[in-house]
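Cross-posted from the bioinformatics board.
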Amino acid sequence: MIRFDHVSKTYPGGARAVEDFSLTIERGSTTVFLGTSGCGKTTLMRMVNAMVTPTSGTVFVRDQDVAGADPVRLRRSIGYVLQEGGLFPHRSIADNIATVPRLEGVSKAESRERALELLTLVGLEREMADRYPSQLSGGQRQRVGVARALANRADILLMDEPFGALDPIVRADLQRELKEIRRALGTTILFVTHDVDEAFTLGDQVAVLSTGGRIEQVGTPAELLSSPASPFVAKFVGASRAARPVRVAGPGGLVLDEDGTPVGTLARDGDEASAALGVSSAPRGSARPVARERS
Ligand SMILES: Nc1ncnc2c1ncn2[C@@H]1O[C@H](COP(=O)(O)OP(=O)(O)OP(=O)(O)O)[C@@H](O)[C@H]1O
Ligand SMILES: [Mg+2]
């Protein structure tokens, strides 16, 4: 669906944002770019909708070279949730959501109907349609940003730290809704975050990036946790694995949280990590929660 083929980007002035990046994103999957600030995530994402032109290399979207595509058509065919929300302050919520359909010639009545449906889809009241962005909370504005990105029925959604500014509860709500939307619509999602939990909750494929868009490792959350390719990855994915309800599954001693998201593995001899997760350090294959050990 999306393919980066040896792309590099040097900005005018010499900043080498991305060097020789290659990755394939399958149709209907969610790929997460996980990395620290300034490692090139936004630059890579914007190559997909031709807002950034690679200095070298090629990006393919739907098997077409982005360099040969009409940028306006391309952008209108892809949903984009900007890092800072990016709603138009002087347009109502409904008009914000309907921006691209209106540009594409969809009638006013039909675009409004679609905007109202999308408000429901992202968990907002239809009554909000005639408010303005300043009359919404930050979390509500973020939801509107997602609705707007879905308004043109795009099969590709680019989301640049869309939930970054939200409290953990609203964030978890939106993550759940996004998974639901993807399941219902089959959307291909490219999602940027520097939050490990968010990456593992949403990603089928997670690419851990370091400076220059260097891929430290790409794989499923389970792969990154059970066999990190480098100390960098181990440290990155190991951070913020705070104690929370977990269970152990699989021959590799994979530890899952209550939603089934992998959060770690049991060490062979039971070490501090196991203890921190509240899981016993029983031999591999027979690990059980500590509380049930004596029953
Ligand atoms: N328009 C630009 N002109 C010059 N340098 C830029 C430009 N945009 C980004 N850069 C530089 O390119 C590098 C990558 O930036 P990018 O915005 O892609 O990072 P990021 O991973 O999205 O960071 P963040 O997590 O802070 O959003 C940074 O060093 C940045 O300073
Ligand atoms: Mg960015």
